[in-house]
Amino acid sequence: MIFLGVMLAAIGVSTLVWRDADLFGLPPAAVGIALLVLSAASLAYGVVRRRRRWTVGGEPAPVGSIVDRAKALPRLLKRRKEYGLPGSRLAQWGFALVYLVSPIDILPELLPVVGITDDAGVAVWLLTSLSTAAGQYLNWERSKQRQREP
Protein backbone atom coordinates (compact mmCIF):
# COMPACT_ATOMS: atom_id res chain seq x y z
CA MET A 1 0.00 0.00 0.00
CA ILE A 2 2.88 2.35 0.68
CA PHE A 3 4.29 1.74 -2.78
CA LEU A 4 0.86 2.39 -4.31
CA GLY A 5 0.63 5.63 -2.33
CA VAL A 6 3.99 6.81 -3.61
CA MET A 7 3.03 5.98 -7.19
CA LEU A 8 -0.33 7.76 -6.87
CA ALA A 9 1.44 10.81 -5.43
CA ALA A 10 3.88 10.88 -8.35
CA ILE A 11 1.06 10.63 -10.88
CA GLY A 12 -1.02 13.23 -9.02
CA VAL A 13 1.83 15.74 -8.88
CA SER A 14 2.70 15.16 -12.52
CA THR A 15 -0.97 15.67 -13.45
CA LEU A 16 -1.06 18.95 -11.54
CA VAL A 17 2.19 20.20 -13.04
CA TRP A 18 2.12 19.09 -16.68
CA ARG A 19 -1.45 18.32 -17.70
CA ASP A 20 -3.54 21.11 -19.23
CA ALA A 21 -6.31 19.23 -21.04
CA ASP A 22 -9.34 17.74 -19.31
CA LEU A 23 -9.23 14.13 -18.15
CA PHE A 24 -12.51 12.26 -18.52
CA GLY A 25 -14.31 15.59 -18.60
CA LEU A 26 -12.71 16.76 -15.33
CA PRO A 27 -10.20 19.56 -14.94
CA PRO A 28 -6.62 18.35 -14.38
CA ALA A 29 -6.43 20.14 -11.02
CA ALA A 30 -9.39 18.12 -9.69
CA VAL A 31 -7.90 14.84 -10.95
CA GLY A 32 -4.47 15.70 -9.49
CA ILE A 33 -5.93 16.61 -6.10
CA ALA A 34 -8.08 13.46 -6.07
CA LEU A 35 -4.99 11.36 -6.80
CA LEU A 36 -3.09 13.08 -3.99
CA VAL A 37 -5.96 12.42 -1.56
CA LEU A 38 -6.02 8.75 -2.60
CA SER A 39 -2.23 8.70 -2.18
CA ALA A 40 -2.45 10.06 1.36
CA ALA A 41 -5.12 7.50 2.26
CA SER A 42 -3.07 4.66 0.79
CA LEU A 43 0.07 5.77 2.61
CA ALA A 44 -1.75 6.09 5.94
CA TYR A 45 -3.35 2.67 5.54
CA GLY A 46 -0.02 1.12 4.59
CA VAL A 47 1.77 2.58 7.60
CA VAL A 48 -0.97 1.46 10.00
CA ARG A 49 -1.01 -2.01 8.47
CA ARG A 50 2.77 -2.33 8.70
CA ARG A 51 2.84 -1.24 12.35
CA ARG A 52 0.02 -3.63 13.20
CA ARG A 53 1.92 -6.47 11.52
CA TRP A 54 5.01 -5.64 13.58
CA THR A 55 3.21 -5.41 16.91
CA VAL A 56 0.29 -7.84 16.67
CA GLY A 57 1.69 -10.29 14.13
CA GLY A 58 4.86 -10.87 16.10
CA GLU A 59 7.10 -9.75 13.26
CA PRO A 60 10.01 -7.84 14.79
CA ALA A 61 10.19 -4.14 14.06
CA PRO A 62 13.37 -3.00 12.33
CA VAL A 63 15.88 -1.12 14.47
CA GLY A 64 18.84 1.12 13.79
CA SER A 65 19.44 4.23 11.75
CA ILE A 66 19.95 4.29 8.01
CA VAL A 67 23.73 4.25 8.52
CA ASP A 68 23.51 1.29 10.93
CA ARG A 69 21.32 -0.60 8.47
CA ALA A 70 23.70 0.12 5.58
CA LYS A 71 26.62 -1.17 7.66
CA ALA A 72 24.62 -4.27 8.63
CA LEU A 73 23.72 -5.20 5.05
CA PRO A 74 27.05 -6.95 4.24
CA ARG A 75 26.80 -8.91 7.50
CA LEU A 76 23.24 -9.88 6.63
CA LEU A 77 24.31 -11.18 3.23
CA LYS A 78 27.24 -13.07 4.74
CA ARG A 79 25.15 -14.72 7.49
CA ARG A 80 21.95 -15.09 5.45
CA LYS A 81 21.58 -18.82 6.06
CA GLU A 82 22.04 -18.53 9.80
CA TYR A 83 19.59 -15.61 9.87
CA GLY A 84 17.12 -17.45 7.65
CA LEU A 85 16.90 -15.03 4.74
CA PRO A 86 15.03 -16.84 1.96
CA GLY A 87 16.73 -17.30 -1.37
CA SER A 88 13.64 -15.90 -3.06
CA ARG A 89 14.28 -12.56 -1.36
CA LEU A 90 17.82 -12.50 -2.74
CA ALA A 91 16.45 -13.34 -6.18
CA GLN A 92 13.94 -10.49 -5.94
CA TRP A 93 16.71 -8.05 -5.01
CA GLY A 94 18.85 -9.35 -7.87
CA PHE A 95 16.03 -9.01 -10.41
CA ALA A 96 15.34 -5.47 -9.18
CA LEU A 97 19.00 -4.51 -9.62
CA VAL A 98 19.10 -6.03 -13.10
CA TYR A 99 15.89 -4.19 -14.02
CA LEU A 100 17.30 -0.88 -12.80
CA VAL A 101 20.52 -1.12 -14.80
CA SER A 102 18.94 -2.77 -17.85
CA PRO A 103 18.11 -0.58 -20.84
CA ILE A 104 14.91 -2.61 -21.38
CA ASP A 105 11.92 -1.28 -19.42
CA ILE A 106 8.24 -2.05 -19.13
CA LEU A 107 7.52 1.65 -19.62
CA PRO A 108 10.16 3.23 -21.89
CA GLU A 109 11.81 6.48 -20.80
CA LEU A 110 10.58 8.08 -24.03
CA LEU A 111 7.23 8.65 -22.32
CA PRO A 112 7.64 11.95 -20.42
CA VAL A 113 6.87 11.37 -16.73
CA VAL A 114 5.47 7.89 -16.77
CA GLY A 115 8.66 6.45 -18.29
CA ILE A 116 10.74 6.92 -15.17
CA THR A 117 8.04 6.00 -12.67
CA ASP A 118 8.54 2.26 -13.14
CA ASP A 119 12.26 2.64 -12.43
CA ALA A 120 11.52 4.91 -9.48
CA GLY A 121 9.00 2.43 -8.12
CA VAL A 122 11.43 -0.48 -8.38
CA ALA A 123 14.17 1.63 -6.74
CA VAL A 124 11.87 2.64 -3.88
CA TRP A 125 10.80 -0.96 -3.33
CA LEU A 126 14.40 -2.19 -3.43
CA LEU A 127 15.65 0.41 -0.95
CA THR A 128 12.78 -0.09 1.49
CA SER A 129 13.07 -3.86 1.27
CA LEU A 130 16.83 -3.76 1.90
CA SER A 131 16.38 -1.27 4.74
CA THR A 132 13.65 -3.33 6.41
CA ALA A 133 15.61 -6.57 6.09
CA ALA A 134 18.76 -4.95 7.48
CA GLY A 135 16.79 -3.44 10.38
CA GLN A 136 15.25 -6.79 11.23
CA TYR A 137 18.69 -8.38 10.98
CA LEU A 138 20.03 -5.80 13.48
CA ASN A 139 17.16 -6.71 15.81
CA TRP A 140 18.03 -10.40 15.43
CA GLU A 141 21.71 -9.68 16.07
CA ARG A 142 20.91 -7.76 19.24
CA SER A 143 18.65 -10.52 20.54
CA LYS A 144 21.46 -13.05 19.91
CA GLN A 145 23.87 -10.88 21.90
CA ARG A 146 21.39 -10.61 24.78
CA GLN A 147 21.02 -14.39 24.87
CA ARG A 148 24.80 -14.84 25.18
CA GLU A 149 25.12 -12.36 28.05
CA PRO A 150 24.39 -13.81 31.51
Automatic annotation (TrEMBL):
Signal sequence region:
none
Q: Which InterPro entries match?
A: DUF1232
| Location in the cell | Endomembrane system
The protein's predominant localisation is membrane
Write the record's keywords in alphabetical order, separated by commas: Membrane, Transmembrane, Transmembrane helix
Q: How does it sit in the membrane?
A: Multi-pass membrane protein
TM region(s), chain numbering: 29-48
Annotated DUF1232 domain ranges read 92-125
Q: What is this protein called?
A: DUF1232 domain-containing protein
Q: What does the organism's lineage look like at the top?
A: Bacteria, Bacillati, Actinomycetota, Actinomycetes, Pseudonocardiales
